[in-house]
DNA sequence: GACGGCATGTTGACACTGACAACATGACAA
DNA sequence: TTGTCATGTTGTCAGTGTCAACATGCCGTC
């Protein structure tokens, strides 16, 4: 008896933390197969549990996929944070620009190195309420730790560009939509869309011109 | 005989033009339900034919979805062409800019007014060969009629901007990737993504700033 | 003008999925 | 000790894509 899928511990009683195990399994499946690989039954199988067990932790398939998607989104935000911290420029104005460039590059880098997760992060958002699009600003959460989402990270960089005087204040409203659109659009076209099989050299060109467009156009 | 499948006439012999009927049915389903509504069985049902009939015209589900997606893409290109033709500016330089703006607006307009078709146009491209990404330039087709795809329409507008001197020639390479990314990204975010429930006023802001970014940044 | 080939459409089956209902187990409190 | 109830299981159902076997009737050939 007592076979564990990840660690060597025997399955204790009721498995203990199945919800977490299911999300983890979903993450693993999504990494290679994208959101369409996050099947209720496949996830249960992966977690070493019978199908329908997931229904004790998620209302339906969408809710499971949503939970996995949230984790993917967090990973995206994490990479964006990491790449921002790696910026070594000291001069404030140049630094502000470099940091914006860094989170943009990180966004595209994530889409390219983890296409399954990237697609899952955005495919998952299917069934959520029109709730004033509050999830963008992360609602209640105090902006304490590294708990920021991609949208918030971007907003902070844009605010900084206004502070240092590189972007006129009257252009600030709506700027996150534009900047986000560029990197998100290119990511989608490269990962999923018609630019999927672009040769690497052309991909490089596309990324650089896209990010340059943001820097010039803001 | 010679009955249309939509009217109430008796089905003649072997249906006559099932392939076309299937694609048409798929288009109808995709319009309201997006690509996930283009089910092999649902399409067959809609066309008044038994399931598996479609296998005489399409290798599998992906091929049917691909055919429907092509039609969606063509409709997108059609709207872009229409909106370009509606530009009334005479002065060549201003006209070049206005036309670029028009195809960008048309792209987003299509995504918003026909989200099901928009998503199908890009969801369909799943299984096609890495064939040198030739489908972008539409391979053999002479650029004769209104047969241009969205990518070609965009390229033509960018070429024109260089001609009239509004865009320096050294910035031309890769420009279609950037411009495309902006409108595609915004469309995805608005239709499918986290900006789905943005209030209409904010949507207006987002569209205008995004298009302004393109004009300024090229 | 009869005949036969063959593209086209149908019926039936199988494995897979998400979802529901009924049942089993065992942790924990009374 | 006992009973409750969250948690996990088994069984089932409708719906899907796909394959194989079968039916139909249009067309060219003799």
Query: Total strand count of chain A, please?
Result: 0
Shape of chain A: elongated
Alpha carbon gap, first and last residue of chain A:
62 Å
What pair of chains forms the biggest interface?
Answer: A-B, 47 and 47 residues
The overall average pLDDT of chain A, rounded, is 89
Main β sheet profile of chain A: none
> How does the helix and strand content of chain A classify structurally?
mainly alpha
Element string of chain A (H = helix, E = strand): HHHHHHHH
- Distinct helical segment count of chain A: 8
Please tell me how large the radius of gyration of chain A is: 20 Å
**Percent helix among the residues of chain A?**
55-70%
- Spans where pLDDT lies below 50 across 5 or more residues of chain A: 1-10
Multimerization state: homodimer
Approximately what portion of the residues of chain A adopt beta-strand conformation? Answer: under 5%
Describe the structure.
The structure is a homodimer of 218-residue chains. Chain A is mostly helical and 218 residues long. Helix content of chain A is 59%, strand content 0%. Chain A is elongated, with a radius of gyration of 20 Å. Chain A starts with 17 loop residues before the first helix and ends with a helix. The N terminus of chain A is likely disordered. Chains A and B meet through helix 7 and helix 8 of A and helix 7 and helix 8 of B. Chain A binds a DNA duplex (30 and 30 nucleotides) through helix 2.
């Amino acid at each position: 008896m007592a076979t564990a899928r990840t660690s060597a511990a025997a399955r204790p009683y009721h498995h203990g933390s199945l919800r977490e195990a299911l999300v983890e399994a979903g993450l693993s499946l999504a990494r290679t197969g994208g959101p369409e690989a996050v099947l209720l039954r496949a996830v249960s199988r992966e977690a070493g549990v019978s199908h329908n067990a997931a229904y004790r932790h998620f209302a339906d398939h969408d809710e499971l996929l949503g939970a996995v998607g949230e984790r993917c989104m967090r990973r995206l935000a994490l990479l964006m944070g990491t790449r921002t911290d790696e910026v070594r420029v000291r001069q404030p104005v140049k630094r502000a620009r470099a940091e914006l460039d860094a989170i943009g590059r990180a966004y595209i880098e994530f889409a390219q190195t983890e296409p399954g997760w990237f697609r899952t992060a955005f495919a998952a958002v299917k069934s959520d309420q029109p709730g004033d699009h509050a999830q963008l600003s992360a609602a209640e959460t105090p902006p304490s730790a590294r708990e920021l989402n991609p949208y918030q990270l971007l907003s902070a960089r844009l605010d900084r560009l206004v502070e240092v005087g590189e972007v006129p204040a009257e252009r600030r409203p709506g700027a996150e939509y534009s900047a986000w659109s560029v990197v998100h659009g290119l990511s989608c076209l490269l990962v999923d869309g018609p630019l999927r099989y672009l040769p690497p050299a052309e991909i490089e060109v596309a990324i650089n011109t896209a990010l340059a467009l943001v820097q010039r156009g803001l």
